[in-house]
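Lab meeting notes turned into a lecture example. A postdoc, R.K., suggested we walk through two folding results consecutively so the class can see how the record format repeats. The first protein's sequence and structure tokens come next.
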Amino acid sequence: MVAHDLRVETLIVRGRAEGAFRTDLPIAWPVDVPHSVMHSAADEIRAGRLTADRITATVLAAFTSPGKPVPGPGTGT
């Protein structure tokens, strides 16, 4: 595991323990999601089809537990 993956995994484990992140997926998947989203988003931003604020919205939606409202970027709610 590379250093950035370890940092993301630590964040996810902490977020799960605090009830902030979903727990219904294997840990490897939410570790990979932000990395994959950012790479795909970079291509879409360069092509003019996406704005950077949508990256945060996408990752928040992916990490939010099913049935809970997705928090707004930067709001924590």
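The second example is placed directly after the first for contrast:
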Amino acid sequence: MISAIPLIGGIPAGPELLIILRVLVLLFGANKIPKLARSTGQAMGEFRKGREQVEEELKDMQDGGQADSTLDDEDDEFDDLETETDKETSA
């Protein structure tokens, strides 16, 4: 007798999957299962969009931090020029 060996542990296959599907039909009814699947898909899509927005905001914040350090470097260069100009004027 050949038995189903799941490729990934924890994912039911064969008879276990049939039992789970029967329980779902008994609990939710055959008419509500497509609606449940659709709403689950929409929720996953919204979650994905929210995650992408958060990732973009984090990336913008990181890029903003690097831009600030560039501005600080330019300010330091400007201060150095002012110091050199002050030295030349006072001499």
